[in-house]
Amino acid sequence: MKGQSIENIAVKDLVLWTENPRDPIDPDSRDEDILEKAIIDVDGHWQLAKLVQQMGDYYMLSDLPTVVYKDDKPVVYDGNRRMILAKLRLGYLKHDTIDTDVLPFVDSIIACNVCSEAVALKNIEQKHLNSGSWSSLQRDYFHHIHLNRERTTFLKFEQATNLISQHSKSLDQGFVKKEIITESKLKQIGFEFEGNQLKSIHSEEEANQILNSLVDLIVSKRITTRGPLRGKPYDALSDELKDTIDKNKGKAYQGFKYESQQGDVHPPKKPRQTRKVRSKKPTFLANELVLVPGALNNLAIDIKDLYAHWYTNKDQYSEEFPSIIRMSLRLLSEKCASDNNMRLNDLINTHFDNAKKKLSADEKTTLHAQSVTKSTIVSLLQIGAHGGSYTQANNIDQAIAISLIIGQILMLSHGK
């Protein structure tokens, strides 16, 4: 598309944005402020912990961040979640709820899709329209703030009352925007906008009663997309409130101050406490190692328990402890071979290919990254056992990779 180019930009130079449609895009914003909003995550849109789990061992490079130069600064318009993780991983940002050890490696220079602002905004709008990730209110904010479109009645109603954001789960829906909070439907119950000011033919007390009742009707699902009162806010109100509306017809519209009902039974959503992003214990041998009862099964369980204990209490042990785990994997493999009257090499050659097919894509990538293959695994199991390289024997990541394929071999050989 015209107006786009791929450029390599230093991660530390990228300026973050909240990607909240109601927030301005500011080239002078502080990354620390954006991170804090992401951690608090009031609306649940950031979900950094979930993104870390999705990434696994490798940083996602499939989607380039969309960048626009504003005041000669590269501002990230789309891809801010991944850029926050990159800045954390590289040490440009810090937060005590984020364990940076779990974050995947990322280069300090990253390829970006550099666009004109018009192209970037169009891309963002299309992305969220296609995915449905923005609510009706968020779309209206984006169109007004970033595309300079007129406020919709829905947006003006929110800015006058804050009712939609207070009851977002129930009110921030397409049918509410299109069938209830419209110019004509508000007129039916005695409300209209003069510019951006909400006015009413009712007294302030009456106006508040009608609006609060309307909200309760939607929240309690008496007005739904399937019921007989769909798109009929006037009909849904109590007879008493309908009498009030009829009585006041013909009166002049006047401004009023909206106040939510006392002791609001549907309070606004409070910020969620962000779950701390911790290192996820890597799979060792297999998530579920189901073997026939016997000595091999008992040994495998003991070795899994040994690894779990070390992982939880690793600070209490020396840096050489992983070599014990690697040697235990060799013992387990040789026991499996012995049960089958095979040499270790023969066991590996017989089962390696089929065992590898049972691994997930991430697990196969782990094997590749740690150079664990059919031709290398036996020598890797023997490292450190006969005066070899104890430094390599202490490589716990490689030991975990070895365990993944050994776990599948055990299940092929001794599985129930």
What features would you describe in this structure?
Residues 259-279 are annotated as: Disordered. Residues 268-279 have a biased composition (Basic residues). By secondary structure, the chain is an alpha+beta fold. The protein has 3 domains: 4-134, no CATH class; 142-255, no CATH class; 295-414, no CATH class. Helices cover 48% and strands 8% of the residues. The protein is built from 20 helices and 7 strands. The chain has helices at residues 31-40, 48-55, 80-89, 117-131, 136-145, 153-161, 163-166, 168-171, 174-179, 183-188, 204-219, 233-236, 239-248, 295-312, 321-339, 344-357, 361-369, 377-382, 390-393, 396-414; strands at 4-10, 66-70, 73-78, 109-115, 191-194, 197-200, 254-255. It has a 4-stranded mixed β-sheet with strand order 1-4-2-3. Strand 2 (66-70) and strand 3 form a beta hairpin. Helix 15 runs parallel beside helix 20 (396-414) and helix 16 crosses helix 20. The relative contact order is 0.08. The model is unreliable at 262-271 (pLDDT under 50).
Write the layout of secondary structure elements.
Blueprint: E1 4-10, H1 31-40, H2 48-55, E2 66-70, E3 73-78, H3 80-89, E4 109-115, H4 117-131, H5 136-145, H6 153-161, H7 163-166, H8 168-171, H9 174-179, H10 183-188, E5 191-194, E6 197-200, H11 204-219, H12 233-236, H13 239-248, E7 254-255, H14 295-312, H15 321-339, H16 344-357, H17 361-369, H18 377-382, H19 390-393, H20 396-414
Parallel strand pairs: 2-4
Antiparallel strand pairs: 1-4, 2-3, 5-6, 6-7
Helix pairs in contact: 14-15, 15-20, 16-20
